Amino acid sequence: MSTVLYRLRQALPGFMGCLWVAIYPVTVQGQSVDTTGSTAITAQASQGSEDALDSASPTCGLPAELASRLRTMLAAGEKVGYRGTLLIEYGNDREFVAVDTASPQGPVQYTRLNRSASAAPQTVVLPSYGYQRGLCELQQWYSFAVEASDQVVAGRSTWRLSARPRDTLRLGYLMDIDRTSGVPLRVVTITPEGQILERFEFADVALTDTPPVAVSVASPGRAGYRFAGLPPGFSLIAEGAEPVDFLVASDGMASVTVFIEDQPRALTDGEGVVLRGSTLAYTRGTADNYLITVMGEVPVATARLLADAIRRRVNPEP
Amino acid sequence: MTPTETTAMAVNETLREAMSAVMDGEGSDMDLARILKAVESDPDARHYWQRLQEAQTVRRTGRSTPAIDVSDAVQLALTEPVTRRRAGPLASLAVAASVTLGVVFGGQTLLNDAGGGSAPAVQLPGGVVPVQGVAPVQARFGSNQGVVTGRQQSVAQPSSVTRVYEQLARERMQRFGSHHAEATATIQPNVLVPYVRLPDDRR
Asked: Total domain count for chain A?
């Protein structure tokens, strides 16, 4: 066991190593679970089908089998649709939601099942900014591993993925991923300190080959502000000026939208944060009399960095 | 010498000055770039930056920063409903001990209710106030309540300015939540979950 802990400490940088080592000796359904299984699976995978891997799909330093599974997972959203019932929990809140992304050319819909006996479906438009997530980039900021635990979720066989942040600027995820399609059927979001922010999972699901339709967005405009810099791994993926100036950034898993507006009233400098599930809203008033709100699935330290980096464009016109 | 002092010594003076300037809102683009690069590659710099964040929150909000009480039921969270998690007291002790050793960074104490009501306070990294009716799960072993979603703490009341900004943040989550969901849905693990998280007026 000590050898395993040592290896993990070597594999994870700094205190994250300490933290995750502290986290993983836990009990699952009466069974002792440590990281031995994860390490074994990862090592086994690394000896697997490396030779057979398509040379056009680099493994990014990951075991070939894991890289292949991750690519399938990352692409699933564009290839697979689903209908079913989703359970989402955060804190004391828990609700069931009927979801449907599988209607051919139809709208993506969800219905909150615990709010009203005859709740109408909510229709959603999915914009696409053409942002492509790269596994090699993701791997720089998250440590991926297959956990030694197979679960059945909504009647489907899954494999368990842990995506551990390599720093404290992003959240971690544990996912049970459908073996056939790559769709995450159960996801737990965890802070860098190990606190569970949110969990969602399908209670029942039917997967189809009809993916949700995302509407291409050419350009929603140009914001009057810019990032002077971005936290490691994040890149700007969109910006616009409606309803207020906004900038969207992502590291491929975590995503944030920064809204900038004039101060609604005279206020001294300050900041405030609220949280809903894994989404936080961090609002800061500045001496320049504008209000910055960072909304996203990131720790508050990252939100602060992003707010720090906002600068007014000298010439906002393109 | 405290761990913080040790960390501060390991961070060069230029970087410390840059961090202080940024925290005071007086940093330049170069300062910011220097910090971003340092927190990416240098654990000491990352730790020192985290400490500055804590200090700033205490200064701005008047809230204390106790040691984080982090235990973890991550695996368990995947397999049991949040209201039913249990584990033996030995597991609790082991996790608590390891966390005490392992977690010396980050985190600021947060209050749940900007209005000063009786809602439980919760701990989250970085000073987060859950919106009403919503609290993060604080996984913990050995409790009769299973997972603790919040707890009372003896902390200073937030300043009136902080309360105002928390209310502004709450209003903006309501106002801009759908825009954020639209902009980021295709990046998230499930395209509909960002919408489900949106505050609902009908509650």
From this structure: 2
Q: Which helix (H) or strand (E) holds A275?
A: strand A270-276
A166 is written with which tokens? Answer: 């390599």
A258 C-beta neighbours (distance < 10 Å), count:
27
* E strand or H helix that includes residue A5: helix A2-11
Instruction: Provide the CB-side half-sphere exposure for A167 (13 A, CA).
Output: 28
Length of chain B: 203
Distance, in Å, from the CA atom of B56 to the CA atom of A316, rounded to the nearest integer, reads: 32
What are the pLDDT tens digits along chain B (203 aa)?
A: 555 566 667 778 888 888 887 777 667 767 777 777 777 777 788 778 777 776 766 666 555 433 332 233 334 444 444 433 333 333 333 333 333 222 222 222 222 223 333 333 333 433 344 444 333 333 332 222 222 233 333 344 567 888 889 999 999 999 999 999 988 888 888 888 998 888 764 44
Q: What is the ipTM of this complex?
A: 0.79
The ranges assigned to domains in chain B are: 3-61, 63-158, 159-203
**B197 with A293: Cβ contact below 8 A:** no
Contacts of A20 (CB under 8 A, 6+ apart): A8, A12, A164
Do A138 and A19 have their domain in common? yes
Tell me whether residue A287 is in a domain.
Answer: yes
Listed in sequence order, the residues at least 6 apart from A67 whose beta carbon sits closer than 8 Å to its beta carbon are: A53, A57, A58, A59, A60, A135
Whole-angstrom distance, CA of residue A86 vs CA of residue B195: 12
User: What b-and-e string marks burial along A122-160, b requiring 16 or more CB atoms within 10 Å of the CB?
Assistant: bebebeebebebebeebbbbbbbbbbbbebebbebebbb
Instruction: Tell me which residue of B10, B106, B82 sits closest to A18, measured CA to CA.
Output: B106
User: Are A229 and A305 within one domain?
Assistant: yes
How far is the alpha carbon of B7 from chain A, nearest alpha carbon, in Å? Answer: 13
Q: Count of residues for chain A?
A: 318
Residue A304: list chain B partners with CB under 8 A.
53, 126
> What sections of B11-83 are H helices per DSSP?
13-23, 29-41, 43-61, 74-79
Give B167→chain A minimum CA distance, Å.
Answer: 8
Chain B residues whose beta carbon lies within 8 Å of the beta carbon of residue A303: 126
Partner-chain contact B36 A108, CB within 8 Å = no
Q: How far apart are the first and last CA of chain B?
A: 52
CATH of the domain at A55: 2.50.20
Is residue A291 domain-shared with residue A241, that is, in the same domain? yes
Asked which of A196, A214, A232 is the last residue of a domain, the reply is A214
Q: For B97, name the nearest residue in chain A, comparing CA atoms only.
A: A22
Apex CA A242: angle with CA A239 and CA A245, to 5°? Answer: 55
Measured between CA atoms, how close is B172 to chain A, in angstroms?
Answer: 7
Closest partner CB to B129 (pick from A212, A275, A309): A275
